[in-house]
Design goal:
heterodimer, A: 146 residues, alpha+beta, globular, B: 705 residues, eight-stranded antiparallel beta sheet, five-stranded antiparallel beta sheet, 18 helices, 32% helix, 24% strand
Chain lengths: 146, 705
C-alpha cells in the first residue's frame, strides 16, 4: 500500500473516531461504562497483530459520554480488524456481529463491551425504513430535562 | 420419529442421537452435535470388531446427560451376548463420553473398538432447508486428537476429538485394539470439543473461552459438569414448594421446573446469567417474544429469567435503520443466530428484528418485573431502552399512519411475513378465508401498546421521576383505548376484529387474540363480558382450551397451526386476562382444561394441540412440531397457577385471591419469592369446571371493570 493510500484511509478511521468524540454524548450508552481498544490493521500486517504499524484507538464510554484517545490505557475489550473491514463496518456495509462470526473482527476480553459499542454504528447504506428516520434527539425530546 | 431420538443439551450446545448413542446424519437429518447453530459432528458411530451395536436401553439421566446400554450385533438375539457396552454422555463445550466395554466370558477377548467421526459443519438453517455448502473441509491429527475443520474465507470452525486411552487415529475416526481379561472391563473417555477459532487471531474463540484443552484430561471441565448437576438441584430447591390434593399437578409442576432449567442458556455477553431460550433443541437461542412471554409466566416462581431477558434484549435493541434485518431504532429483536448463513449475511439473524410485539412486551415485562421484585435499579439501568421502545411504538411501528402498531417486512426474501405470535402464512384471515394485505395491524399488538404505555407511565412516575412523560403516556393510552374500542369492534359479531388491513378495514374473523386484549386491559368494561362469552363459547372453547381461530370461520381447521389448534401459552395469557376483568369461573375453566391436558401429556405440554371438541377425542391430539419442550408451553402451567390463586403484587404485598377448579382441591404454594422476601399462598378448589353451560349468563353480573 502506498503512502498516500494509507493517508487517505487513515483519514477515514480518524474521521469516524473524531465523529464519535464530537458527539460527546450518546443516549444509548447511558448507564454503560467501558473502554474498548481498536487495533486497525493493514491487510499485509495481518500476521503481526502487534505490529507498530497498526493504528490503535481507545474509546471510553462513561454513562453516555464518549471520549476517544490514542493514549495507552487498560481496556475492557480489544477489537482487532483490518482497515478495509473497519471501514466497511463503520460505514454500515458490514454488520459487526456478522463480522465477529466470520472472524473478520476478533474480540478479546468483554464481548458485552463490543456489543454495546455496535449500537452507535450506522445501518447499511440504502436502507430507508418506511418512516422517516427519527433521531436520537427525538427520543430524548420526551425527557423532562431537554 | 422425534420420540426415538435422544437429546441432551446444555445452553445452546446439544446432541441428538439415536437410541444407541450413534449419530448418522444426512444433509437434512436433524441428528448431530450442535453448538452455536452449527453442526460440529454429523457422524459418530461405534463399532466393535466392525459390528454395529444394538441398544438394550437408554436412560435420560438429566437433561444434559444420557446413558446407553448396548450389545454387539444387530440381530434381535441378545441371549448369547457375552459383552456389554456402556456409553455415558454429557454435554459440555461439545460432549464428554465414557465408553466402557465389559467382557462377560471367563476367557480374555481381543477386540477392535472403533469410533467413526465426521462433520458437515452445517448451519441449522441448512439442516432445515438442505442447502449446499461453499467452504472447504480439512482433517488433521494434532496433539493425539482428530481435528475436523471447515473453512470459508475467514470463517473457521473445528471439532477436536480425543481419548484418554491411546488410539490409532485416521482422518475418519479413532480405533482401539484392546484385550479385555476374563470378566474384566476396558474403558476410555472420549472428549469432543467444539471451537470457533478465527483465522485473524488464533486463540480468539466465539464458542469457547479458550483454545480447546487437550481432550480427555480436562479436570476443569469435569468440575463444570458437576456444577451443572448442582445447578439443577439448587434451581429445584430454590423454587417455591407446591402441595396439592390433585397429585398430577405436583408432577406437572416438577416437570415444568426441570424443563425450564433445561431451557436456560447464557449469552456470550452475560456468562453468569441465564435466560429462557424458545424451545429444544432447534430454538435454543434468544427470541424476543418467546423469552419475554416465558419470563412473564415464570415471574412468581423466579425473577432471574426476566432480569437476564431484559438485559439481553436491551443490549441488542435496534439503533438504526436496517432493511435487511427489519431493524429500527428502539425495536426489540426477534431472533438471534450464530451460524454460517448469519455470518455471511445470507440470513438476517445477527440479530433479526422482524417482530411487532416484542417491543411493547419488553416494557410490560420491565414493569411486571419491578412489581414482583422491587428492583428499581434495573428499571433505571434500562430507562433509555424503555423510552426508546415506547418511542418505537408511536413512530416506526405506525405504518398505516393511524396510530396503531402494524407490520410489513422490508426484507422480502428472508424476513418474516407475519410479525405477531401467530407467524404462519395463513394465520390472519377474514371470516371468508381471504388473506389481508400489508401492513397489518393485529389487535393484540394494540393491547400490548396500551399496556406498555400504562405501565411505562407507572415506571416514569415511580423510578424515572418524570411526571410529564407519565402524564403524556397516560393520555396516549386513554386515547388509544377509546379509538381501539371503536375501530376494532365488529358490530355484527360483538367481538374485536383480529386486525385492521392495509386500508384500515376490519379483518373480521373471531380469534383467540381477543383474550390477549383482556390481559392488556384495553377492552372497555362494557365490552368485556361479550369477549369473555366468546372465549368460553362453543366456537372458540374446545373443552380443553381456547382455539386460535373460531369454528365456523372459513379457515378453521382443528389441526391448523394458527387456524384452530389450541395453544397452552395462548390460553395461559387468556386466563390471566379473564381474571383481570373479574371472570373468575371462566378463568378457572381454562386453568382446569389446560392442566388436565398437561396431565395427559405427562406434565409436558406440547406447543399446540388439536382444537377438536373435547367430547369428540377424549384426549388432546398433539400437534406435531419439532421442538419439545417449548419454553412458553413449559411456562403455561406456572402462569395458570398464578391465575388460579389470584396472585397479584400490590405495593410491598402479594395479594392472594383463589379461584380454583374443584378438582385441584387444596393447593399450597410455599415460599413465593419477591419484594416481600417469601410468602405462602393457599387456596381451595370451589369452582365446578365440569359444567360450562351457566357461564355466559353468570358473566353478565360479574364484570368488574
Amino acid at each position: 500500500m502506498s503512502r498516500t493510500d494509507r493517508e487517505v484511509s487513515a483519514t477515514s478511521a480518524e474521521r469516524f473516531f473524531a465523529g464519535l468524540a464530537e458527539s460527546g454524548h450518546i443516549a444509548t450508552f447511558e448507564r454503560e461504562w467501558a473502554t474498548i481498544r481498536f487495533d486497525i490493521l493493514d491487510p499485509d500486517e495481518h500476521a503481526h497483530a502487534q505490529s507498530d504499524k497498526s493504528e490503535r484507538w481507545y474509546v471510553t464510554i462513561a454513562d453516555g459520554s464518549v471520549s476517544v484517545t490514542r493514549q495507552d490505557r487498560p481496556a475492557d475489550a480489544v477489537a482487532r480488524v483490518s482497515r478495509p473491514d473497519f471501514e466497511a463496518i463503520t460505514s454500515g456495509r458490514l454488520n459487526a456481529q456478522a463480522a465477529v462470526l466470520r472472524g473478520l473482527l476478533t474480540v478479546e476480553g468483554k464481548m458485552a463491551a463490543l456489543v454495546m459499542f455496535q449500537r452507535c454504528l450506522p445501518g447499511p447504506p440504502g436502507s430507508k425504513g418506511r418512516v422517516a428516520p427519527i433521531s436520537a434527539k427525538a427520543v430524548m425530546a420526551q425527557r423532562r430535562d431537554t | 420419529m422425534t420420540s426415538e431420538l435422544v437429546q441432551i443439551l446444555e445452553g445452546n450446545t446439544f446432541v441428538v442421537s439415536d437410541h444407541g448413542g450413534d449419530i448418522e446424519a444426512s444433509a437434512t437429518d436433524p441428528t448431530g452435535l450442535f453448538s452455536f447453530d452449527t453442526r460440529f459432528l454429523s457422524t459418530w458411530v461405534l463399532t466393535v470388531d466392525g459390528q454395529r451395536l444394538t441398544a438394550l436401553s437408554c436412560d435420560d439421566l438429566q437433561y444434559f446427560k444420557a446413558r446407553f446400554f448396548l450389545v454387539p450385533g444387530t440381530s434381535t438375539v441378545y441371549v448369547n451376548a457375552t459383552m456389554t457396552v456402556i456409553r455415558q454422555r454429557e454435554v459440555a463445550d461439545g460432549f464428554h463420553e465414557e465408553l466402557r466395554v465389559l467382557n462377560h466370558r471367563d476367557s480374555p477377548v481381543n477386540l477392535r473398538i472403533r469410533i467413526d467421526a465426521a462433520s458437515d459443519f452445517a448451519d441449522l438453517f441448512e439442516v432445515k432447508d438442505a442447502l449446499k455448502k461453499s467452504g472447504q473441509y480439512e482433517t488433521r491429527v494434532e496433539h493425539g486428537s482428530l481435528v475436523l475443520g471447515y473453512r470459508r474465507e475467514s470463517y473457521f470452525r473445528e471439532t477436536w476429538i480425543g481419548s484418554s486411552q491411546p488410539a490409532e487415529i485416521d482422518d475418519k475416526g479413532l480405533s482401539f485394539d484392546v484385550t479385555i481379561p476374563p470378566h474384566g472391563e476396558w474403558a476410555t473417555i472420549l472428549d469432543v470439543v467444539v471451537s470457533a477459532v478465527t483465522a485473524a487471531a488464533p486463540g480468539t474463540s466465539v464458542a469457547a473461552d479458550s483454545r480447546p484443552e487437550r481432550p480427555g484430561r480436562s479436570a476443569g471441565r469435569r468440575l463444570a459438569r458437576r456444577n451443572m448437576a448442582r445447578g439443577l438441584e439448587k434451581w429445584l430447591e430454590r423454587a417455591p414448594e407446591l402441595r396439592c390434593d390433585w397429585e398430577p399437578l405436583e408432577q406437572i409442576y416438577r416437570r415444568c421446573l426441570t424443563d425450564l432449567a433445561a431451557l436456560r442458556f447464557s449469552t456470550l455477553t452475560m456468562p453468569g446469567r441465564s435466560l429462557p431460550a424458545a424451545g429444544l433443541p432447534w430454538f435454543m437461542t434468544i427470541f424476543g417474544r418467546d423469552s419475554i412471554f416465558t419470563s412473564l409466566q415464570a415471574l412468581p416462581f423466579t425473577s432471574e429469567l426476566a432480569a437476564a431477558t431484559l438485559r439481553a434484549l436491551a443490549e441488542r435493541q435496534g439503533t438504526r435503520i436496517d432493511d435487511f434485518r427489519d431493524e429500527d431504532p428502539g425495536r426489540i429483536l426477534h431472533e438471534m443466530r450464530y451460524g454460517e448463513l448469519t455470518a455471511f449475511e445470507e440470513r438476517p439473524h445477527s440479530p433479526y428484528y422482524g417482530s411487532a410485539d416484542a417491543t411493547p412486551l419488553f416494557v410490560i415485562l420491565l414493569d411486571e418485573y419491578e412489581r414482583w421484585t422491587g428492583d428499581t435499579r434495573l428499571v433505571r439501568d434500562l430507562e433509555h431502552a424503555a423510552r426508546a421502545a415506547l418511542c418505537w411504538i408511536d413512530s416506526y411501528a405506525d405504518l398505516q399512519g393511524n396510530g396503531y402498531i402494524a407490520y410489513q417486512r422490508r426484507n422480502a426474501t428472508t424476513g418474516l411475513e407475519n410479525q405477531c405470535w401467530k407467524d404462519s402464512w395463513d394465520s390472519i384471515s377474514y371470516r371468508n378465508g381471504d388473506l389481508p394485505g400489508f401492513p397489518r395491524a393485529t389487535c393484540e399488538l394494540q393491547g400490548y401498546a396500551y399496556d406498555a404505555k400504562v405501565r411505562g407511565a407507572r415506571l416514569a412516575r415511580l423510578v424515572w421521576r418524570d411526571d410529564v412523560f407519565a402524564g403524556r403516556l397516560e393520555r396516549e393510552a386513554a386515547g388509544l383505548k377509546r379509538r381501539f374500542n371503536k375501530d376494532f369492534w365488529v358490530q355484527d359479531g360483538e367481538y374485536f376484529a383480529v386486525a385492521l388491513d392495509q386500508d384500515g378495514q376490519q379483518v373480521d374473523s373471531l380469534t383467540s387474540n381477543i383474550g390477549h386484549l383482556l390481559w392488556s386491559g384495553i377492552v372497555d368494561k362494557s365490552k368485556a363480558r361479550k369477549v369473555a362469552r366468546h372465549l368460553l363459547g362453543p366456537r372458540l372453547f374446545s373443552g380443553w382450551g381456547v382455539r386460535t381461530l373460531a369454528e365456523g370461520d372459513a379457515r378453521y381447521n382443528p389441526i391448523g397451526y394458527h387456524t384452530g389448534a389450541v395453544w397452552p401459552f395462548d390460553n395461559s395469557f387468556i386466563a390471566w386476562g379473564l381474571r383481570r376483568y373479574g371472570f373468575r369461573e371462566e378463568a378457572a375453566h381454562i386453568v382446569a382444561g389446560i392442566l388436565e391436558a398437561a396431565q395427559v401429556f405427562a406434565g409436558r405440554l406440547p406447543e399446540a394441540f388439536g382444537g377438536y371438541p373435547r367430547d369428540l377425542t377424549r384426549y388432546p391430539v398433539e400437534y406435531p412440531t419439532a421442538c419439545s419442550p417449548q419454553a412458553w408451553s413449559t411456562g403455561a402451567p406456572l402462569l395458570l397457577l398464578r391465575v388460579a390463586l389470584g396472585l397479584e403484587p400490590e405495593g410491598e404485598h402479594l395479594l392472594v385471591d383463589p379461584a380454583l377448579p374443584k378438582r385441584i382441591g387444596h393447593l399450597e404454594l410455599l415460599d413465593l419469592p419477591g419484594r416481600w422476601k417469601q410468602i405462602d399462598a393457599f387456596g381451595r378448589g370451589r369452582i365446578d369446571t365440569d359444567r360450562l353451560e351457566t357461564l355466559a349468563t353468570h358473566a353478565a353480573s360479574r364484570s368488574r371493570r
